[in-house]
């Protein structure tokens, strides 16, 4: 009796973009845009003629998280990818081909998968990777001195309905800001230091209760503190400063940093409007927030600023776009 086999293949490649990032991946002098489309990544090179597709790579699994990072001893970036089925890997380009540096399985037996989507973040000083995959659990994967991944460890979270979590800049001990919702539907933000040896969170130096009821995103700022993105307000909060900006009500789904010092950010909302957020600072302290309307785009799922006014708008709801925008309004 002949053996029967099933062969399953998609008729068309996915075009919906869920994640994107920019960095020096294929060479120290290359500026690359990396785009996640369901089970594939596309790697582009920015040239004087525009974006040039270098290669299109299929992966075994649906991409949930995508982050570029660079170890202190390296000249170019590595790519961290987390899959919806809890596998993860770190990829690098050796000049000829894409190779896997390390990988593993982050699944947890008996854990309840989070309803708000998987979150993968990398400590801004490249000391560890953090994954929020299950309610009440934060998985930490430290780096060793050679930049290799060590064994993952689990830290319990008392905030069960977590909305967003980000590492903060300028912290001697790895520190996260946690945006969460309590059982009365109020939203709060709290900071924690990560004690690796004790495998626990230590309460940080500041917190804030009763935020905008639509607060949904955290954006760490190199100047210090964090931007809290809501439906009616944008707030910068740190241990020493507080600044608030009222905006027209909208659901902001994507934010992209423009300047390395974190003084300008692009953000897109559910109506397809693109705005520029400008942070004014004096002597290292944030003094004001301003926003400028930049135009209409597809509803953004991800925003990556490339260079010299060139920005990539990735979308799951329409055509992804590359636009040349005038940032002089921020002056």
End-to-end Cα distance: 76 Å
> How would you state the average pLDDT, rounded?
91
Biggest beta-sheet profile: 4 strands, antiparallel
The total of helices stands at 0
Shape: globular
Radius of gyration: 20 Å
The string of secondary-structure elements, in order, is EEEEEEEEEEEEEEEEEEEEEEEEEEE
What is the β-strand count?
Answer: 27
Spans where pLDDT lies below 50 across 5 or more residues: none
Helix vs. strand class: mainly beta
Helix share bin: under 10%
The percent range for strand residues is over 45%
Spatial order of strands in the largest sheet: 1-2-3-4
Describe the secondary structure blueprint for this structure:
Blueprint: E1 19-23, E2 32-37, E3 40-47, E4 50-58, E5 63-69, E6 78-83, E7 87-93, E8 98-105, E9 119-122, E10 128-134, E11 137-142, E12 153-156, E13 161-167, E14 175-181, E15 187-195, E16 200-208, E17 217-220, E18 226-229, E19 233-237, E20 242-246, E21 252-257, E22 264-269, E23 273-282, E24 285-296, E25 302-307, E26 310-314, E27 321-324
Antiparallel strand pairs: 1-2, 2-3, 3-4, 5-6, 6-7, 7-8, 9-10, 10-11, 11-12, 13-14, 14-15, 15-16, 17-18, 18-19, 19-20, 21-22, 22-23, 23-24, 25-26, 26-27
């Amino acid at each position: 009796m002949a053996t029967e086999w099933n062969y399953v293949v998609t008729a068309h490649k996915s075009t919906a973009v869920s994640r994107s990032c920019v960095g020096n991946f294929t060479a120290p002098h290359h500026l690359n845009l990396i785009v996640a489309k369901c089970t594939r990544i596309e790697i582009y090179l920015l040239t004087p003629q525009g974006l040039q597709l270098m290669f299109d790579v299929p992966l075994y699994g649906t991409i949930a998280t995508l982050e570029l990072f660079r170890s202190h001893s390296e000249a170019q970036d590595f790519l961290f990818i987390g899959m919806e089925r809890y596998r993860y890997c770190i990829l690098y380009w050796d000049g000829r081909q894409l190779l896997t540096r390390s990988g593993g399985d982050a699944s947890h037996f008996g854990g309840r998968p989070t309803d708000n989507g998987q979150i993968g973040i990398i400590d801004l000083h490249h000391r560890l990777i953090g994954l929020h995959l299950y309610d009440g659990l934060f998985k930490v994967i430290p780096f060793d001195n050679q930049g290799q991944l060590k064994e993952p460890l689990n830290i319990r979270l008392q905030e069960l309905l977590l909305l967003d979590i980000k590492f903060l800049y300028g912290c001697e001990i790895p520190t996260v800001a946690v945006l969460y919702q309590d059982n009365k539907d109020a939203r709060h933000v709290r900071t924690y230091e990560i004690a690796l040896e004790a495998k626990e969170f230590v309460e940080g130096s500041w917190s804030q209760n009763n935020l905008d009821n639509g607060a949904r995103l955290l954006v760490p700022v190199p100047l210090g503190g964090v931007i809290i993105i809501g439906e009616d307000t944008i707030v910068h909060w740190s241990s020493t400063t507080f600044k608030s900006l009222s905006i027209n009500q909208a659901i902001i789904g994507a934010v992209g940093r423009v300047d390395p010092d974190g003084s300008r950010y692009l953000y897109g909302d559910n109506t397809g409007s693109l705005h520029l957020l400008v942070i004014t600072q004096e002597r290292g302290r944030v003094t004001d927030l301003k926003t400028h309307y930049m135009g209409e785009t597809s509803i953004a799922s991800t925003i990556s600023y490339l260079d010299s006014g060139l920005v990539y708008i990735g979308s799951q709801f329409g055509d992804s776009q590359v636009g040349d925008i005038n940032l002089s309004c921020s002056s």
